[in-house]
Amino acid sequence: MPRNRPVARRTDALTRASVRRSATRAPAGAIAEEGAAPGRLRWLKSPAAWLLTIVLTVAAVTFQDVLTASVKTILPLDRVPDRLSPQGAIEVVEVKNVKYFGYYLVRGGADAEFRRSLPLTEEWREDPRTVDVETSEWVITLQGRASQQVRITDIVPEIEGGSCKAALTGDSLVHAPSAGAQDVIPLQLKVDSPQPRLEVDGKDGEDAEPYFTGSGAKHITLNQNESEAFLVQATAEKGYCRWRYRVHYQVGGGVAETTISAPKGKPFELTARLPDSAGYDEVFFPPTDCASPGKEDLPEAWFEQTGAEYARDRKDPSPPCPES
Predict the structure, then answer these.
(1) Of all helices (H) and strands (E), which one includes residue 36?
(2) Nearest-angstrom CA–CA distance, 41 and 64
(3) How far is residue 198's CA from residue 188's CA, in Å, rounded to a whole number?
C-alpha cells in the first residue's frame, strides 16, 4: 500500500547546523597529539637528547674515516676518485739551474745593464735572454704524495718539434769558469742525439749506459713525503734544442705520467757552441781566462772582444789579456 510520506533527498551541501556540529567535534587522534606535543619538546630540550646527537655525529665521522682508509687499502689508486688519483702521486718540488761555469749565450746581445751585472752578481745567469751553451746542469727534485709507494719507471726527454734546430749564432758569448758540486743522482743526456735518453756512467770507466731501460734498467721509488733529487747534465754538440721531460710511473696497480718543465713552465734550452768563435758578435770573459798563472793583481772587470778577436787570440795556448 503506497505511502504518502515525502521522500527525503540527500545533498552534499553544508548547512549552518552541520558546520556548527563539525566545529564542536574533535577527532580522538588530534586530542592525543595535542597532549603529546609538550612532552616531545621537553625531551628534545633535555641533556640526554643533546648527548645522543653528539655521539651519533662522532660515530658518523669515525665511520667515514675508516671507510676511506679501507678503500685506499683495498682498491688501486687508479680506481679511487679525486685526491687519491694516481695523477697526483708525484709532485715536482724544485727545478733549479746549477750550471756555474762554462759558456752562455745572450740572445739579442748584451746591453749596458747586462754588462754591468757581469763582474758583480750572478743575476745575468737568470736573465731570460741567457741560454746555456755546450752543457746544461739542472737539479730536479721529486716527492711522493701517494699513501702507497710510487715507482718511477722512465723519464723521457720530449724535444719540441721532434728534433733540434741549428745552433744559435750571432749575439753575445759569455765564458764563466768556476766550480760546483751536488750530492744527487747524476744523469747524462745527449739532447741533440738521434734518440736522446737519460744515461749514467758505466762501471769502471765504461761508456754511459741507459738508466731506465736496457739490460741494467733501474728505477726510482718514492714513499709518501719522500724526496729524491737527480742532476741532469745535458750536452749539445751541433744543435739548438728545447725540451721537457715526461715522467712515467706506477702506483697502486695503476700507471700515470707527469711533465717536468723549466721554471715558469718554460722548456729547457741548450745550444751547441759554434766551432769558430768568429760566429759571435762579441765575447765576454773574466781575467782568469787570459792572465798568466800565479798572477795576483787581476782587474775586477771582465774583458770584451769581438768574436773574431777572441777566435784569433785563442790560437795561443796562453793568450795575453787584451789592453783595457
Answers:
(1) helix 28-44
(2) 31
(3) 6
Find, among 4, 159, 145, the residue nearest to 83 by Cα: 145
* Cα 272 from Cα 25, distance rounded (Å): 104
Q: Angle at CA 12, nearest 5°, toward 10 and 14?
A: 115
Give, for all 324 residues of the chain, the pLDDT tens digit: 444 444 444 444 434 444 344 444 445 444 444 444 555 556 556 666 666 666 666 566 565 655 555 544 444 444 443 344 677 899 999 999 999 889 999 999 888 888 888 876 777 888 889 999 999 999 999 999 999 999 999 999 999 999 999 999 989 999 987 554 455 788 999 999 999 999 998 766 567 899 998 888 899 999 999 999 999 999 999 999 999 999 999 998 889 999 999 999 999 999 999 999 999 999 999 887 886 555 555 556 788 999 999 999 988 888 888 876
Q: Is 89 exposed, middle or buried (0-12, 13-18, 19+ CB in 10 A)?
A: buried
| Separation CA 269–CA 241 (nearest Å) | 6
pTM of the model: 0.70
- The grid cell for 194 is 738521434
